[in-house]
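Per your request, structure below.
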């Protein structure tokens, strides 16, 4: 065995050892983070449960025990699952419609600068309208059923995905575009094989950011006019001054949204081939 082979094997062993130490530091750091988060949650719940009547009025903030009882009762109610299904369906339709239109128009406007400059003030003006002001009109136009909630959610999702797509395509590295042109690609190939893939992280980030807006649009619509859905149930609890019920529905929506965010993160890993970038300098400290 030559000295060069021995040196190469020693280098590989050192690299493997360093990788193992890095992975160990990462696991220890993540364990510490999870432990700190659990302690914070435990302390807040403890203070919340036993602080009622001493530090604050439980009528205004409820209690973890009361919230748990409401959740337990709702989980045994078949209508609760109907409400989840109704809200989930409306959100999926609104999110799908708004996201697909936002990405499509973002791509079109990124390709045709003149069209983008012409319509830019109109998009900015429409985006500045509070959606709650549009809700009564949407109810008149689309009725009190699913249509108004879907359109309201879609209008919120549209602009987030539109501006993310537009910014992503416009910020593609010009050197990459020049190389593609030198290789002789036409404009459609340039868009679909260079610009669109290069802006994928921007588009997926827009999809993630728009998720809460889809839920907000549906909940606002259900607040105004609905006979089912999580927004209807939340409105029922809040108008009867049931603080525990109101917090219970907020928790259900939080869990619902966390699951959807996890689904989008999974989509990002599949589409881009890696997890979202993160700062790992803390592992070298």
């Amino acid at each position: 065995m030559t000295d060069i082979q021995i040196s190469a094997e020693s280098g590989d062993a050192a690299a493997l050892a360093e990788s193992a130490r890095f992975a160990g530091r990462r696991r220890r750091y993540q364990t510490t983070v999870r432990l700190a988060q659990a302690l914070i949650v435990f302390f807040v719940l403890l203070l919340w449960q036993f602080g009622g009547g001493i530090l604050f009025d439980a009528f205004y903030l409820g209690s973890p025990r009361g919230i748990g009882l409401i959740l337990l009762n709702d989980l045994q109610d078949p209508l609760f699952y109907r409400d989840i299904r109704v809200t989930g369906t409306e959100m999926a339709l609104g999110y799908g419609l708004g996201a697909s239109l936002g990405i499509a128009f973002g791509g079109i406007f990124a390709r045709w600068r003149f069209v983008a400059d012409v319509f830019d003030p109109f998009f900015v003006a429409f985006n500045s309208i509070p959606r709650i002001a549009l809700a009564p009109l949407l109810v008149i136009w689309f009725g009190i059923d699913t249509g108004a909630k879907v359109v309201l959610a879609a209008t919120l999702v549209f602009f987030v995905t539109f501006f993310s797509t537009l910014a992503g395509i416009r910020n593609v590295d010009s050197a990459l575009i020049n190389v593609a042109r030198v290789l002789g690609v036409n404009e459609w190939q340039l868009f679909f094989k260079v610009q669109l893939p290069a802006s994928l992280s921007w588009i997926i980030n827009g999809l993630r950011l728009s998720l809460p807006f889809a839920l907000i649009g549906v909940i606002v619509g259900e607040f105004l006019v609905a006979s089912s859905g999580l927004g209807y149930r939340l409105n029922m609890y809040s108008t009867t001054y049931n603080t525990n019920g109101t917090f219970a529905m907020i928790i259900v929506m939080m869990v619902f949204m966390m699951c959807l965010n996890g689904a989008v993160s999974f989509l990002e890993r599949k589409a881009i081939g890696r997890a979202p970038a993160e700062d790992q300098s803390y592992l070298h400290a």
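The two ends are 38 Å apart (CA to CA).

Regards,
D.
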